[in-house]
Amino acid sequence: MLCVLLSVASAAEPSGEMGRCAADPTGADPAPADAGCGCAAMRRDALLPPPSPLPSPQQSAGATAPPPQMVWIPAGEFVMGHDNRSASPSTFLADGEGPSRRVRLPGFWMSATEVSTAQWAAFAAATGFQTDSERFGWSFVFEGQLTPEADAAATQAVQAAPWWVAVNGANWRRPEGPGSDALEGRADHPVVHVSWTDAVAYCRWIGARLPTEAEWEFAARGKQVGGAKRTVFPWGSQLVPGGVHRANVWQGAFPAANSAADGYKFTAPVHAFGPQNEHGLYNMIGNVWEWVSDYWSTRHSRSTTHNPQGPASGTERTKKGGSYMCHKSYCYRYRTVARSQNTEDTGTGNLGFRCARSHEPTPSTESKD
Ligand SMILES: [Ca+2]
């Protein structure tokens, strides 16, 4: 029997809680009160022994080639965040989308795609790295994706968002729990059930790092960021321009009806939909949320900053881009300026990442990954 998870947790049992995630009153579909959205702050309450040391970066010959599957984002200045609270009334204040502030960034490399399950599998095989979800023994799975085995064994759901189920055995390899296998038929989909700490370990292994929130938002904007020209999405201000889907989000009344009009009910391949902007970046918006390096804060200075790294400390980490579970009616967060957060050890079926890397490579300072 599935029971609703309250705030009580123990070290041995799957646990979690879901933060507020209000509906957008401008959305077309009604949303349950305090619906959550597949994007708010769930967390584990158990304690784990310290993880093993992070794997060392790969060492290989070659000095001048750019990192594979990364694109160069030239240095620039842009306006981060926004001031138009009427554009996102339910999230503007709650998520700290504003105020707008000018940010200058040096150039950097950005992964063209989210990290795929195949890429993660290579990392895990080479290093033996254990994700937090593997060490905890469970992770959060959307109820609509449970395997029969996982559904039968499920014991706890999240009170504020009962479509999130804590599933024993769910991890990057078995994203829907026992009986699922991400390497069968969808190895090119984004790896999920990876925590912030896991993502940092992978990026370090390829000689990279997580992008900062500023880098992520700057890259998502595309090349139209120099002036006042700003669009809601990386490709423009229409979600489905000319009837062509550009991102993997939810169509229908969440959580019961998902028409998958964009072609994907859940995750999509990391290269699906084609590049979302002129940089050649795929699925910045939609598909899975993406960890960035910054600690979470909803308070920002209007001052111009150079290469901001986020708060010096905090209890949660920031994520960007929204996921296949997002719909305007309850989670209008698939916008370049939108943001959300989770604790560092959280894993879910709609949360992944991509990596970034500083500096244009030169023969003397860069190595080929
Ligand atoms: Ca979809």
Automatic annotation (TrEMBL):
Gene3D superfamilies documented for this protein: paralog of FGE (formylglycine-generating enzyme)
Record-annotated Sulfatase-modifying factor enzyme-like domain positions: 68-357
Coiled coil: none
Gene Ontology cellular component annotations, sorted alphabetically: endoplasmic reticulum
Compositionally biased region (Low complexity): 21-33
Signal sequence residues: none
Region feature Disordered, mapped onto this chain: 14-33, 48-67, 300-321, 342-369
Pfam short name (any one): FGE-sulfatase
InterPro entries, per database record: CTDL_fold, Sulfatase_Mod_Factor_Kinase, SUMF_dom, SUMF_sf
Record GO terms (molecular function): formylglycine-generating oxidase activity
Domain of life, per lineage: Eukaryota
PANTHER family: FORMYLGLYCINE-GENERATING ENZYME (PTHR23150:SF19), SULFATASE MODIFYING FACTOR 1, 2 (PTHR23150)
Name listed for the protein in its UniProt record: Sulfatase-modifying factor enzyme-like domain-containing protein
UniProt organism field: Prymnesium parvum
Lineage: Eukaryota, Haptista, Haptophyta, Prymnesiophyceae, Prymnesiales
